[in-house]
Amino acid sequence: MATNRATKSGFAAEAQRKVNAKYSEELAQECLEWIRTITNEDINCGGDMDNFYEVLKDGTLLCRLVNCIQSGSVKKINNTTMAFKCMENINAFLETAKVLGVPAQETFQTVDLWERQNLNSVVICIQSLGRKAGNFGKPSIGPKEAEKNERHFSEDKLKAGQSIIGLQMGSNKGANQSGINFGNTRHM
Fold first, then answer.
1. What is the pTM of this model?
2. Which residues contact 91 (CB under 8 A, 6 or more apart)?
3. Which residues lie below 8 Å from residue 160, measured CB to CB, with a gap of 6+?
4. Average pLDDT over residues 57-64
5. How far apart are CA 151 and CA 38, in angstroms?
6. Of 47, 54, 48, residue with least CA distance to 31
7. pLDDT tens, position by position, 102-116
8. To bridge 78 with a disulfide, which of 18, 85, 131, 172 should be the other Cys (CB 3.0-4.6 Å)?
9. Of 127, 120, 124, 65, which is closest to residue 90 (Cα–Cα)?
């Protein structure tokens, strides 16, 4: 856990401060309130880092959350406080979140939550899961999921587009390479 580590100093401390500065208490509070709505559990919905970490650190609530979104997603939830069992819970949540449609770039690593390394990435993952929950008939949070806007063009339209020279390509009317001598020395 984070309490067993030495305090960071120098570049590591500076990097950790930058990571912690990205954390938004408002978004974290919105995530906790959404989790409370989905799971019907009485949890403290304060958005400060300490509360957010304490509520989610063992992974049991996260596992119950994905089980409420899609029942039976996580088969076994470990209710012990042993480190590797808690990290197993967090990992089970992450794997299920990916199955439910959360992109890999919006997930977090187990240590980001367990060792309190990057709680902002945990918030991002829960927000992404919250957007995907709407696809399973559950209340969603965050911005609405984008809809596919596929366009179909006829063969004639596609061929007409190939004959147009875009203005970004420029024009080379009358240009030649007569004055270019990069790398050449003067010949005598």
1. 0.73
2. 59, 110
3. none
4. 92
5. 36
6. 47
7. 999 999 999 998 988
8. 85
9. 65
- Cα separation, 15 vs 30, whole angstroms: 26
pLDDT for residue 4 is more than 70? no
Using DSSP's 3-state secondary structure scheme, residue 46 falls into coil
64 contacts 94 by C-beta, under 8 angstroms:
no
Tell me if 138 sits within 8 A of 129, measured CB to CB.
Answer: no
> Tokens 């004055």 appear where?
179
| Residue 7 to residues 15, 16, 20, 53, 151, Cα–Cα distance (Å) | 13, 11, 15, 18, 54
Domains, in order of start, for the chain: 24-136 (1.10.418.10)
Q: What's the pLDDT at 99? A: 93
User: Token pair 């010949």 is at which residue?
Assistant: 187
Residue count of the chain, please give it: 188
In contact, 105 and 94? CB cutoff 8 Å: no
pLDDT > 90? residue 13: no
Most confident of 7-16, 126-135, 170-179: 126-135
